[in-house]
Structure formats: structure tokens, C-alpha cells
Amino acid sequence: MTEPNPVGIRRRRRGLAPKRELRDLAADAQPLPEPLDLVHVTSVGAGREIVSLGQIEASHCEVFKRELVYMFLARPAYRLRNGNAKWDQINRFPCVFVIRPDKLGPPSHSYPFDTGAATSGCYGDTVDPHVYLDDYELDPNLPAAQRHIAWAFGDNREYLRGDLILGLIGGLHAWQSVGQSWLTIAGLAATGSNRPDKRASAIEVAYSKHLPLKGHARLMIFPQQLIEDDRGKNSAFIEDLTKQGLLWQTYDWRPNETPDRFMDEVTETVRRSLENAGQL
Amino acid sequence: MSEHGELVGRLHLIGYETLTDHGLALPIFGQSRGANVFYTARSTPPGEANVQIAGFDHYDPDRLIRLPLEQIRETGLGEPWLDVFLWAGTVNVGTAPEIWNALAEVRERIAKHAPLSLLALAEGVDPVPDLQIFQSAFSWLTTRYGRQKAEEWRNDIYLRGMVLKSVRRELGAYAEKADVRRALQKELKVRQDGHKIVIELPLLNLEGLGSFVGRAVGRGLEPELAKVDNRTSENVMRIAALQVAASKPHGRATTTEIKNEINQYVSLTLQDLLPSKTRPNEAMYQQIVGNIVSHRTSRNSIFAMGWATYTGDGIQITKAGLQYLKTLSL
């Protein structure tokens, strides 16, 4: 992860029209044939609550000043909540929901990176200070996100890896500052980056409503200890999962493992699941 | 020193955060019993007996449960890893062998209800006493969730985890590099072939794999190791080196630039990323890049083919080299 810069990407002042250049750049790209699933990463505690409630509840977002549910297209990246760096719980006890987007309706917004990380300055000095957050926004629908993947990554597999099509930046005009700035930010997620930050090019999709698990979520990934039962609570949890029609996979949680290792395991499980679903 | 650069001397294990109501919990450390700045510990490669504390990182617990005074333990870097294990409302604190012994009377009961947690604890005990625990975990999963889930666990978590640990032990700090971790995740495969379990892994000279096979057989498994040779060929590396040069002003790239940027043009495998045997400070692929630039007289070199000229500190791609990349649609 890039060290936070005190100045993150700013929002454009009201009344000034955003330059949504990325929409135009991807306009001619053909959406890829297989739309990708959405991924919601949270902590085990929050994940259990979601299962018990049967839905992922929208919560207040300080950046956009509204109630939102955040997800990323295909990538299990963590989102910084309201730009706040308090994400240790997710880090140490991650759990993941894989969600089919086809019946969710249009999202509230879609951005080509984690906006929480962007506004809190996690992309450091790669950011063009004259390009505002709103300028990066994609059309708020999933075909537009798929076109963006086709334009920037070529296919779903490369998107998942974070590897951009080579030479894209050379094909942009000097005045296409939004495209240039985004490509520089997105480079932080690429293979070979010193410490790849997968949030830097993960497509963020936000919904302004609670998302019921039933009929939408297809997989939950959590630590294997949750399938054991000491006092009955975990049996109830697995029963709730079954009721919601969710498949589950586990990973090996250890107190002395690093957060990076947990994410490696979770990412590999998501990748296999997408591959089995014919999305890669 | 913590990851945030603060000096952390000796700390106390003052509490824990739970994953669930039983089994291993996350130990939380502080300078003193009443501390309000908290740390988690990092260990030497986990999943082994005799692991030690290798460092402390800041942590911001949501639900810290403080230990009673008599269970607080002082510790420091290089000292044995301390676990917190919950069972039936009791909190057990200590090294894995200490907890293992303390649980002697209830281990059978734990194995019936929480065999995965018991297996995790057992791995920290030397000699590893988990021969039957593995089998009871597999039976327990089969009874509870069906044969398919039990096999998924055995192959994707247990066996895969054992091989990963074996590789990490061999590679040391190198295994923690992001690109090495990514390649390992991608290339290590455990698959079921009828009644046979096949483990595909890169062609590595891992001394630890002998012990892995021994341990797996000890658990009633006889996995077959299928070593995969997927080193990127020198020819592919030559083309990628030309691509790096073509991306630079005047088509000139230094050897260092090629070494640093070639991974943008070729998907490096674990074997490419391993340390060179003759130049331990370099990865194998970097050594190959060095050879591509320095072996100028060999018949197949990019210089002999007329695709590049030597600049003294790297290469410059020629018109013929650019044309060659074009014929490859690159």
C-alpha cells in the first residue's frame, strides 16, 4: 500500500461540470462477453451480522454524503471506510461475499478505483492535483464498467491481475489529463509495482440501497473455524447461509499469519470461483 | 521495531480478540497491563513448531478482551510465540506445547467438536502430534458437510497449506515478496485425479518437500508430486527486452531498466523469480537479462540477429528489431 499523502483527490466544487474523459476513452470498446461478479470485503464480525440480517446494509459515506453499499468488480480489495484508516478488523479477520450483479439494477455510482483510498491520499504523488474525483467517474452501469475493462485491461483476467494494456498512456493526447492521471494511479496495482495496491484500479461500484443476499449473493468466504461448533452459534450461522442459498468456502485463519497471506488465500478462492463461473 | 518505525521493547500479552467462541484467538500486546496502545505480533514462518515472535505491529482492536492479571505474560522479539486458545469458557494462554498439555483432559472432546482448531494448535507442538487429528477432522467434515466439502478442505486448505509452508520455509524472506506470493498462489495446484491427489508445483529444489511427503503419508495421504517446469524461455525474454527498449526514447534501455521493467512484458513464473544460484542478490530472470545483454557474440543473440546494438550500459533497438516486433504483432 502506498503511504498516505495528506492531500487526497478532491471533489469538484458544485456548479463546475466534471470532465468525464474516461467514459469517452472507453466508449468504442466492446463490453466483454462475460460480466464479472461483485465482491464485498468486510470483517468476520460484520459478515456474520450480514448473514443474520440477510442483507448488506447501506451505511453513511462521508465522501458522497449518502447511504451506500460498496463493492468492487471481481477484486477482493479492502475499502477504506470514509477515508478512515481504521481497517484493522477487516485486515485481520477478512470475509468476502461474491455477488451476482445482474438483478441488482443500476448502481448509484461507479469509479475506476477505490474512492475512499483516493480521497484519503493513498495514491500519493501519482495524482494530478488538477483532476477532481468526479472527473474519474464512469457511467453508472455495469456495461460501462465492462467497456472500461476492455479499454484499459483487454480482458477480465488481466483486470483481475491489475495489468494494464501496454502503451495506453502513449496513445493519449497531452490534454487528456484525466486519462493520463488515472493510468498513472492504476499503475500502482500492476504486477511489478513495488507493493501493489490492488485498490488503485479496482472498479468500485456503489449501491444506494440495502442488498439482500438471497437471489444475489452466491458465495461467502470465511475462516474455517466458523464451520466448527462449540456452543451452537456457528451451526446457526451455517444454517442461515443455507437459507440464503449461499455457497461457502473457507480459508485457514491463524493468529500468527500476516494479513497479506489471508488476502492471497481469499483472492485465489475468488479467482477460482470466477474461473469456474466462466468469467475469466 | 514496529512496522511504523517505533521502538518496541518488551511487551506484555494483555488480551485477545476472538474470531469465534472457541479455538485460537488473536493475541493483543501492550507495554503494560493498562496499556491503551496495542500491538499484534508477527511470527517466524507460521504453522511450524517452535515459531518465535519476529516483530510487533500497531493494532486497533474493536473488541479487546483483557486477560486477568495472573495470565498476563511478558515477552519480546525472538521469544517463543504465545497463543490464546479458548475452549468451553476457559482461556488458555502460553506456547502451543504449554496449551496442548494444559488441554490434555479435554483434547478428545475438542477433537469431536472442533477438530480444525485442535489441528491448528497441534501444528505448533513438536513433535507434531496430529496424525489422528487429521483423520478425525476429515471424518468430522465428511459427516457434517459431506464428502465433497471434506475433500475440498483436504486438498485446497490442508495439503495446499502444507506445501505453501514448505515452500515458504525454503525461500525465507524471499517468499514474502508480492510477485513471488502471487506466482506461488497461481502455480501451486492440488487436484483430485480419481482416487489420487496430485500436487502440481514449480520445479524447485526444495529439501523440505521430502519432509512434506513424509508428513502427508503419515496422515494417511499419498499425494503425488508433479513438478512443473515453467521457466520463461530465453527467447521470450529476448523479445521482452526488445519491447522494453522500444518503449524508451530513441529505443535505448539500460540493463537496469530492462531488469526492472521486463515484468511488464512477460508474466514471470515462480522459477523466474527465484534467487539466482550464482548471483544470490539477483532473481533468475534478472540474471537471464544480464546474459542477454552480455552474451553479444552468441549466434542467437539480439545483436547477432541485428535487432539491437550494444550501448555500453544496455541496448538500443534497431529498425530491424522494431520490424521484428511488428511481425510478432507487438
Give a structural overview.
The complex is a heterodimer of chains A (280) and B (330). By secondary structure, chain A is of the alpha+beta class. Chain A has helices at 21-25, 44-53, 88-92, 115-119, 142-152, 156-161, 177-186, 233-243, 259-276; strands at 38-43, 55-56, 59-61, 66-73, 94-99, 109-111, 204-207, 211-212, 217-223, 247-251. Chain A contains 9 helices and 10 strands. In chain A, strand 3 (59-61) and strand 4 form a beta hairpin. The two termini of chain A are 26 Å apart. The model of chain A is unreliable at 1-5 and 81-86 (pLDDT under 50). Chain B has 330 residues and is α+β, with helices and mostly antiparallel strands. Chain B folds into 3 domains: 11-103, no CATH class; 147-228, no CATH class; 234-327, Arc Repressor Mutant, subunit A (Orthogonal Bundle). Chain B is built from 12 helices and 14 strands. In chain B, the strands form 4 sheets. In chain B, strands 1, 2, 5, 6, 7 and 8 form a 6-stranded antiparallel sheet that branches. In chain B, a hairpin with a 2-residue loop joins strand 9 (189-193) and strand 10 (196-202). Chain B is elongated, with a radius of gyration of 26 Å. Classes of the chains: A alpha+beta (280), B alpha+beta (330). Chains A and B meet through helix 3, strand 10 and helix 9 of A and strand 2, strand 3, strand 7, helix 3 and helix 4 of B.
